[in-house]
Amino acid sequence: MNIEYIGLKEINGPLIVLDGIRESCYEELVEIHCNENDIRTGRVITIEGDRAVIQVFEGTSGLSLSNTRTRLTGRPMSINVSKDMLGRVFNGTGKATDRLGEIYPEAQPDINGSPLNPVMREYPRDYIATGFSSIDGLITLIRGQKLPIFSGAGMSHNQLAVQIARQAATMSKSYGIVFAAMGVKSDVAEYFKQSFEESGALSHVAMFINLANDPIIERILTPRCALTAAEHLAFAHGMDILVIMTDMTSYAEALRELSSSKGEIPGRKGYPGYMYSDLASLYERAGRIKGRPGSVTQIPILTMPNDDITHPIPDLTGYITEGQIVLDRGLEQKGIYPPVSVLMSLSRLMKDGIGEKYTRDDHAALAGQLYASYAKAQEARALAGVIGETDLSPIDKLYLAFGRQFERQFIGQSKTDSRTIEQSLDLGWELLSMLPIEELDRLDKKLLDNYYNPHI
Amino acid sequence: MSSELKIHGINGPVVTIKGRTSLGMLEMVYVGDNRLIGEVIGISDNHTVIQVYESTTGLRPGEIVTPSGGLMACALGPGMLRSIYDGIARPLEKIADISGPFIKPGLDIPAIDIERLWSVEIRTKINNTVTPGTVIATCQETPSIIHRIMIPPNLSGRVVYVASSRQYKATDKIVTIMNDKGERHNISLVQHWPIRMPRPIAQRLPINEPLITGQRVIDTLFPIAKGGASAIPGGFGTGKTMLQHQLAKYSDADIIIYVGCGERGNEMTQALTEFSELVDPRTGQSLLDRTVLIANTSNMPVAAREASIYTGITIAEYYRDMGYHVALMADSTSRWAEALREISGRLEEMPAEEGYPAYLPSRLAAFYERAGRVSTLNGGEGSITVIGAVSPQGNDFSEPVTQNTKRFTRCFWGLEKSLAYARHYPAVNWNLSYSEYVDELSPWFSKEVADDFIDLRAEIIRLLNEESELMEIVKLIGADLLADDQKLILEIARIIRVGFLQQNALHQNDSFVPIGKQYRFMKVIVALYNGAREITARQIPITRLKERGIFDKLIKSKYEIPNDELDRFDQLTDEINADIRTVISEHENEG
User: What angle do CA B516, B520, B521 make, to 5 degrees?
Assistant: First the structure.
């Protein structure tokens, strides 16, 4: 059907209102012709009889109540997907921007996806070696997991993400990386591109880029386009796809901006009440399907406003994702890379993806002991801050020393250092041997006999 | 009255129809050409509001809304155990057969498999008088559970037809009854019940028995009663889901209803695979044989999330009416409250606190009040225990969902981030948590476990309290300057924390601990404390006892002593006494 509607009823921020519409359907895609060369796209977000509210992806600047012609397409927002997307660069709505022409579509899926039936999910169990002791040893990443990086402005999350992608994704025979940039600065996007290029992975990367000054509605679509591409590559082509999404904070800000222009009742800190559901509709698109090869693993990156982990964005993210890698400014300032705050970090899928069948028999218990001992080291450090290091009891002094070495050797590693899981676990035992055996209350006798070997 | 109801407006999951309609409040309707399932949630003179349980993408104004004629109801009958449903009780396995890995909208599949055959034993005779709840037949639903087919709550009369005992499909007629007006009703294995309405009972009974969960911090310190309600609030990463899974696995309820409400898909997959592999320690059968799973994951439609809690509790009430003890785990009620908020926002209702609707407390109360120990309509006894996880925003327990949940539950297991960070699981904070059921359950513990159970429990709590007071001092001056009897309290409290309260869900001897072993463990800890006080009373440094390794031995005993070798606690007690005598005699010899 090719009816065009001339003019608009109302313009409000990124939203336009049309009257007298027949046959519109909810969430369908519309084209808005402003003049010959300016064709914008939008989506129906509310219908009230013959009136429709449409959000315009490219923004409404330049639109007036009389200079537009609007055409309904009758289908929801979808993008062209194909295996050829790897190696290409797209904008936030999935249009190629690298001057290599449009891709030849293998399919045209709805970008909102459909919920994956829990019965058809394959529970993720294969661990991914990232080469970082802190992550492999204590926050093990599993294929098909969604594990975000909680960072703060100015910390080294981008380097960490690139290095994980470089060292981990390439482990699979058939791998791909989907990179979604939402509201990032152009030099950050360039950094990712360059890093992928240097590591020779660029031909395996599909990039969806929405820069900081691009329209916010496009930002809402960016992760959806990227995940739609990732699902296609993973489940139609059986590839192991790693999706890096940065920066989820910009995404959530865009969601808030859109919500307020729609006049919705705000929840906490002005974010819309449905932000949990909205974020879940992205994060839940990670996983594996029973009886099919391929997986979607997500590493979303978010910068915690003011380093506050209770802020709604990290808070809701943490409730949805399967753990989190938290970066710590204190460690960063000590020059420790990657500055992973292991006590606050967690991988929920770790317990089923490690152990004898996957990594090593001592892995779970060793990780538990390292956590517990490092937690005690932190207590000793707090106490030393009050009464001074010299007044500490001998055992607290040992813990203090353990904590320092743990941060320096186990958490910290050089940017080119990629450790195997055995190296990481052996290093863990070496550090534990700084402590007397009575203190190791998480380890049973068999493991201690096999691995514990005190210095002195 | 116009027969055609047409969609006027669409806003997310909320659809409106213009003009007066004959639709009833909470009536189930089919929306649009795809026949999406919806429910009427608001009626006024000029429009009717419907919430739709599926994605409304692609819906058009002008499409037809078809009334179903009944309230939003759940089909109840044999075959629900071992099943996994979505929020409006559609079997997810059937959905997967039809629509593949991804869930497509517009599938109306009954909760009960109507093809499957059941071996039915008829339990009634012609001319018997039957009343609501009367058991007319039974069938073996799973190896561990007998399904009792009851007269639905709204029917009674005289039996005029009885089928013979043999195999039937769920919808086959097995009994016909005639009521006193002479109306005949055919009764099959299936009945329907509106999910938002509590099923009737004869009367409520006072609680008298704990739900034994095998988790020491719960059973011993903060026990929950069969028929009670408990809240588990905790920030993300504190182990709510892990604890809920443990409770679902090991609670001594007959039936478990596990509602995954707005949570992770992989977790439900995990529950499904893990429960089918694990063996119920009480029956020797698969854990899944007593479990109904309801999975409305966070990316499934939000309105169905709101319904999932009611679907779950309706199924729980149905099994309760058969005379079973049912435990319902809801993870997480905050997502349900958020779904309420989202729908309320779309309806442009006036918000109360943090955008939640003003009726949040009354909805929470209505839900938790469906828990309880009751005498059923057929004179039996059953109970529903509700354990609701709460996900407070920003780990702030003062937010509306946590606060209102606290008002309607009598047991509170507060999970704390700092404990989880130190990998102290279950991360139940002993200073924050409480159970109001302790007094009511004391007689049971005294009778079934031991006379001194409650006294020992009080002693454990006292030691933990003293420790937290002492820790305030330690934080300022360090532990070295404390007196020896205070140091002893710190040492014993460490055993309580690391040994007793911490429990390793992955260790075979520690994942589930019977109440008898919990008692023995508690008793040996208090025995060590009392014995060691004799040492401090003689001014002997407590390190002398500690050096003998008995403290660490006690902590590790939870791994070393299997659940069926409780005699070894006697050996442990003997060792403690021997160590204490040695320390004292060595001191006296030196002196």
Answer: 115
Cα A11 to Cα A42: distance, rounded to the nearest angstrom: 13
Using the Cβ of A265 and the Cβ atoms of chain B, whether some distance falls under 8 Å is answered with: yes
pLDDT interval class at B107 (50, 70, 90)? confident
Q: Does A449 touch chain B (CB under 8 A)?
A: no
To the nearest whole angstrom, how far is the Cα of B304 from the nearest Cα of chain A? 12
C-alpha separations of B292 from A118, B75, B87, B326 in Å:
14, 14, 12, 11
| Per-residue pLDDT tens over the stretch B390-441 | 999 888 899 999 999 999 999 999 999 989 988 899 999 999 999 999 999 9
CA distance A167 to A256: 35
A393 closest CB neighbour out of B60, B478, B556:
B478
pTM of the model: 0.93
CA angle B401–B405–B409, rounded 5-degree value: 170
For residue A397, give both structure tokens.
């002094």
How far away is chain A from the Cα of B105, in angstroms, using its nearest Cα? 9
Q: Using the 8-state DSSP alphabet, how is residue B341 labeled? A: H
8 Å CB contact of A444 and B10: no
Q: Is residue A1 pLDDT above 70, yes or no?
A: no
Complex ipTM, two decimals?
Answer: 0.90
> Residue A439: closest CA among chain B residues belongs to which residue?
B552
Contact A344 B421 (CB under 8 A): yes
Q: Which pLDDT does position B363 carry in this prediction?
A: 94
Residue A394 to residues A372, A391, A397, B171: CA-CA distances in angstroms? 18, 9, 5, 74
- Residue-wise pLDDT tens digits, A174-218: 889 999 999 999 999 999 999 999 888 889 999 999 999 988 888
Sorted by where each starts, the structural domains of chain A and their CATH numbers stand as 3-76 (2.40.30.20), 83-352 (3.40.50.12240), 363-451 (no CATH)
Nearest to A123 among B56, B260, B266 (CB): B266
Indicate whether A456 pLDDT > 80.
no
